[in-house]
Amino acid sequence: MAYQPVQDPDIRPIQPAHFGTIELDTQYDPAYAPAHGRSPSISRSPDEESKGEDMGDKNPFFRRSRTTSWSTTWPLPPPPGVRPSVQAQQVATLTPLRASLMVFDAVLASTPIMFVALALTAAGLDGKEASLYGFKLEQTLLLSPTIFPVIFAALMGRFFRSLGVYLAERGTTLGRLEQLFGCQSVFTALERQITLRYWSIVGVFTVLIWLLSPVGGQSALRLLSTENQNISSIATVRYLDPGSATTSSLEGASSMNSARGTYTSIFLAALLSSSKYQDTSMDLWGNVKLPLYRDIEGDTTDEWKRVYRDEEGGNATYGSLIGVPTIGMPRDGYSNFTIKARQFDITCSRNEIQSGLKNESLWANVTGTWGLMGDPSSPRIGEYPRPILSMSLAIDGDTSSNYSVTACNVDYNYFEARVNCNGTSCGVGSMRKLDLFGDGYTNDTDLVTRANIIRNLMTVLPRVDNTDVSSPSARGSTNAEKWMADPTNFIGATFDYVQLYKLDPDVFARRLTILWNTFHQSTFATTTLGGALPSNLTQTGLLVNPNGFSPNITFNGTQARVIQQTLPVYKTNWKWFAALLFSSLILLSAAYAGLAIRYMTLAPDIIGYASSMAMLNPYVPINTGGSTLYGLERSALLHDLPVRIGDVRPNEPVGTIAFAKADDGRVARLNRRRYYI
Description:
Keywords: Membrane, Transmembrane, Transmembrane helix. By secondary structure, the protein is of the alpha+beta class. It folds into two domains: about 95-225 and about 570-600, no CATH class; about 240-565, no CATH class. It is built from 18 helices and 16 strands. Strands 4, 5, 6, 7, 8, 9, 10, 11, 12 and 13 form a ten-stranded antiparallel sheet that branches. The longest helix has about 40 residues, at about 130-170. Residues about 1-60 and about 60-85 have low confidence and may be disordered.
């Protein structure tokens, strides 16, 4: 309920003696003392004088002293010849101290410019590459959540206080003053709204203003970040034409013998490095390898079958130790494109040991340790899958030998693969199966593959590393056989025989597939396998053989989608930029407005200070410094004064609670059982 003055014209207002006399000076000065030795009581009748003396007997604060004090009726001036101890002065005069404070206040009020500058600087870095300057700015912004609320509290609190003093000088309500002086944080602003039980626009405004403090601090923290920008483009990537397989040196006896040194070295190089490159997506020369399609075929019903990386629980074995040569991948960034290739796949149904007499005429070369041939018992010699038999010497006795005999089927397939690259490091991400007879591959072409290439491959592969060696069986199993027995431990001369019959048919089939495809790929387009391809190949698509003895090699073109990342660049969050700029400008405006109001106001700032409770207080009968001092100035003057909130009428039936001087024993402590007014 708002304060309403109540006045009955028939009742004279109560004016107790301690309201009529306000102590201005309690120090006795003989030069100004009256002749009778006691301080006169101005504007008091003899009856009031007598009553005052009686009251002084009961109230120790108003007991008269003939030697140390005089009193005057407030607000009348002191009588002629009597000098107050506080020298009169004008308010708001410009002194050196006040000028220094003005400079300090101006500097303090300008501190929000720092946050405005930070926001504008961060905005200027948007889209620019990361730098040492930007790094230092980021480190500065990390301090903002701590610094901004501190400066905000200092400046906004001073603004509301200065505004309160300004309004108090010109006249306002007590409730509004309480709202302005009490809102020094979000909590106190809400507290004033609730406890005063009075919701006003000013109160809501103060709450909203204080909410800008955490917003400004957090917005600076989230203002600037770094990111890599993606630049998309289209590039041409070329890969070896699948039709190049028809030019294999295995197509005839003459070419097979002429190229023996080439394909032998390539095949053995790939085989001997398999311990490192067998499970990688690219071979040792950087060519892209294709997984075995049957490993991923059943994972999904979609046409494209996904290939999972090892860290994703890899689901495929690579079908060859040699990949498909590609050129044109950008060295930086990510790219994806498709390639096509044909690949053999072998499945086996049985793997067992069989015995035979020494030097018995078998279908395998008796001078070697391993042999391959088409299964003569199958009627499907000219079809896919094509049945074959593998025979490997397991135990060589004096009169008889044991052989590992495996029945398998050879299939030939055409695939399209999606290749994903990070720079020049590539791998197949998914595959799909195509019709074998497509892109120029005809029945006549396949007839050459089946009749010549596959037949010659089965002849050359088992003896690729012991051709023209006398008594090759005396040297133990070939490198290929030992690799099939254990791909991780096969290098070195052991002069023994591996027992391939101990392998599971599926394991044997996978390893034979890898050997088969690796050897096949080492017999065609061999000049493209080493990776040293000419740079103009991406434009021409044709690798010309300068000597004219070998055919030119075609590279098919494919469109690659390339995503390249730039160097890290700064990214300004414009929402947080607006929040920081708005909070800083509001704070800057409030700081300068508070500064202007502070020095436009003549009234001293005394509201809310403990020392102000001693000002003109009849229960603090000492010099309190006059009425022109600011609250902090008076606090500095009276900082050693002992005070207490207690009972200033301890001898009365009903006590009175007041703020009083406490060093003379005339104020008693409060008692829960006593009544007070």
